[in-house]
Amino acid sequence: MTRQLAPWLAGALLLAAVPALVESPFAIHVCILVLMWTALGAAWNLLGGFAGQVSFGHASLFGVGAYTTIILYLRAGVAPWWGMPAGGLAAALVSLPVGLLCFRLRGPYFSLATLAVSELVKLVALNWESVTNGPVGYLITALPPLRLFGHAVDWESKTPFYVVAAALALAALAATALLRRARLGAYLVAIREDEEAAEAVGIDTVRAKVLTLALSAFVAGTAGGFYAFYFRYVDPDAVLGLSLSMEMVFIAVVGGLGTVGGPLVGAVFLTTVGEAVRERFPSGHLVFYGLFMMLVIRFLPEGIWGRARRLATGLQERALRHGAA
Amino acid sequence: MALLEVEGLTRHFGGLRAVADLSFALREGEILGLIGPNGAGKTTVFHLVTGFLRPSAGEIRLAGRSLVGLRPHAVARRGIARTFQIVKPFPGLTVKENVALAAFLRHRARRDAEAAAAEVLERLELSHRSGTLASQLNLMDQKRLEMAKALATRPRVLLLDEPMGGLNPAEVDVASGMVERIREGGVAVILVEHVMKAIMRISDRVLVVNQGQKIAEGPPAAVVQEPAVLAAYFGKRVA
Ligand SMILES: Nc1ncnc2c1ncn2[C@@H]1O[C@H](COP(=O)(O)OP(=O)(O)OP(=O)(O)O)[C@@H](O)[C@H]1O
Ligand SMILES: [Mg+2]
Questions:
Q1: From A11, A123, A265, B158, which residue has the greatest number of CB atoms within 10 Å?
Q2: For domain B1-79+155-239, is the CATH number 3.40.50.300?
Q3: Are A186 and A179 in contact (CB under 8 A)?
Q4: Distances in Å between the alpha carbon of B161 and those of A183, A220, A224, A273, B20?
Q5: What is the ipTM score, two decimals?
Q6: Pairing state of beta strands B213-218 and A147-148?
Q7: C-alpha to C-alpha distance for A117 and A115, rounded to whole angstroms
Q8: How does residue A324 score in pLDDT terms, banded at 50, 70 and 90?
Q9: Lowest-confidence range among A21-25, A190-194, A210-214?
C-alpha cells in the first residue's frame, strides 16, 4: 500500500513546491497548461485508452463545461470555482444521450459519430445566440473576490490557478488509477480486447461504455470550466475546435494508451514540442500531430510512459536477480 | 418442465432461412448433441439462444422464463454460457485474467473472482498456463480456455460450438471427458460437433438439423441409422 502511495505523495509534493521554486509567471503559465492538458488527456484516456473507444469529439465536452461555467458566472453570479464542477456535471449529462446513440456503432463508425456530434455542438454554440452569444462568445472582466485563510486571493497572480490546475490533474490521474483497479476497469479492458466475448461472459458493454464516457465527460467538462476561469474567455473556436479533440487524442497516444502516468508525459510533450510546431506552422500543426501519432503508433505503440515503465521494471528485475545471485 | 425450451425458432437472413421452425428441449443434467452438415444452422441457433441474434419468430425459455429480446450479457446472467466456434479469447490478457473477467459475473470483489477463476482452471487442467497470454496458447488450450471462461460464469446451460474441431484423437478423448465432468457438475450441455466419435460417446440424445430444420431426434445410435440423416449428413459431406 505504502509502495503504491509513495509516487503519488512524491508527485503531490513536487507539484506543491513549484510555485515556491519558480518565479517567472510565464513558466507558471506553462505549468498550468501542462496540468490542464494532463487532465484532458486523462479524461480521453479513460474511454480511449482503457475501453478502446476512440473519440474525435471530446472538445464538445470541454466546451460544454467551459460555457456552463462562464454562463453561470456572468448570468447568474455563480463563482467559477462552483461553476467548474457544474460544468463537469453538465458535460456528463450531455454525454449520456450521445453515448447511448453513438455506442450502438463500433470502431471507426463510433469515431465518426463523435466527430459529427462535436460539429453539431459547435453549430449549436454558433447559432443559439440567446444562450451562447453566438460567434462572439463571453468575456469575464472581473473575477469575484474570495478570501481564503484570512487572505484575499490575488486573481492577477498565476499561483491560485496553478493550485486549481494541479488539483484537477492529480484528481484525473487518481481517477484513472482507481478505475484501473476497479471491476469497471477490468470490463473496459475486456471490451477493448473483444466486445462480443465481453458480452458473452455477462458484461453489459453498453452500460460500461456509457458510464465511462460520463466519467470522462465530467473530467473534460471540469477542465473546460477551468479554462473559462483561467483564460476568462470562451467562444466556439476557442473551446469547441476540432484541434482540441485531436490534441487530447495526441496526448493519450504519445503518453501511452491505458496507462496512468501517460497523460502527464503526453501533456509535457504537447505543450513544448507541439507549441513550437504550432508557432512555426500555424495552420499545419494538425498535420504534424497526425504524422507524429502515426510514428508513435508504429514504433512505440505503448507510448512514452508505457515504454519507460517496461524498461524500469526490466531494470528492477535484473537488479533483483543480480542481488540474489 | 425442461430446463431450456425452444419453440418454433426461426431466423431469416434476407431470403435464406438459416433456422426454420425449430423446436427442442434440453433437460436438467443432459448432454444434447446438435449435429448437421456445414451451414445447417447450428451456430445460428446458438446466436439466437444467447441473444447475439434476434429470432425472426419463435420462443426460447430458460426454466419457464422467456429469453427473447435480452441482450447477450443478460442471457449470460440468467445462466446460459457459450463458447464460440472460432475462439474468442481476450488475446492481450493472461489465461487467468481471461477467466477472472468471466468470474466477475458472480463475484464483486477481484479477489473472489480470481479465486473462482483459479478453481475453474484447476478443473480444466489449465492451471499451468495461468500466466500465459491467451494469444500464445496452442489450439487445445485455446479450446480449454474458451470452456473455462464459459464455466466461470457459473451457467446452468452450456452451449459448446465445436470444442473439438481441429483436435487430434487423443485430445478429443480428453475433451470428451471434460464435457462429461462438466455435466456431472450439474450443468446441462448442448454440444455442436462434427467429430462423430465424441457425439456418439457422450450425448444422451442427438438432434439433427439440415437447412435449418429438424430432421431427426433421439438416442445417438438410433439417429445415425435414419435414412434422412444418412442422406442429408453423409450425402452432402462425402459428395
Ligand atoms: N450473419 C449472417 N448473415 C447472412 N447469412 C448468414 C449469417 N450467419 C449465418 N448465415 C448463413 O446461415 C446458414 C447457417 O449458418 P451457421 O453458421 O448457423 O451454420 P452451421 O451449422 O454452424 O455450420 P458449420 O458446421 O459450418 O459451422 C449458412 O448458410 C450461413 O451462410
Ligand atoms: Mg457453426
A1: B158
A2: yes
A3: no
A4: 29, 44, 50, 53, 19
A5: 0.91
A6: unpaired
A7: 6
A8: low
A9: A21-25
Residue A185 to residues A297, B156, B220, Cα–Cα distance (Å): 23, 27, 46
- For A231-269, letters b (16+ CB in 10 Å) and e give bbebbbeebbbeebbbbbbbbbbbbbbbbbbbbbbbbbb
How do the domains of chain A map onto residue ranges?
24-141+152-242
* Cα–Cα distance, B34 to B225 (Å, whole number): 16
Would you state the cell numbers that stand for residue A167, as one nine-digit string? Answer: 488539483
3-state secondary structure of B207: strand
Nearest by CB to A190, from B101, B152, B153: name it. B101
- First and final CA of chain A: distance in angstroms? 28
The per-residue pLDDT for range B113-140, each reduced to its tens digit, is: 999 999 999 999 999 999 999 999 999 9
pLDDT in tens, B9-66: 999 999 899 999 999 999 999 999 999 999 999 999 999 999 999 999 999 999 999 9
- Residue spans of the domains in chain B: they are 1-79+155-239, 90-154
A181 Cβ under 8 Å from any chain B Cβ: yes
Instruction: Write the CA distances from A227 to A122, A129, A134, A234, B39, integer angstroms.
Output: 17, 21, 19, 8, 59
Q: Residues with beta carbon inside 6 Å of ligand 1? A: B 13, 16, 18, 36, 38-44, 85
Q: Which ligand is nearest to the CA of B44?
A: 1
Answer with the residue of higher pLDDT: A315 or B220: B220
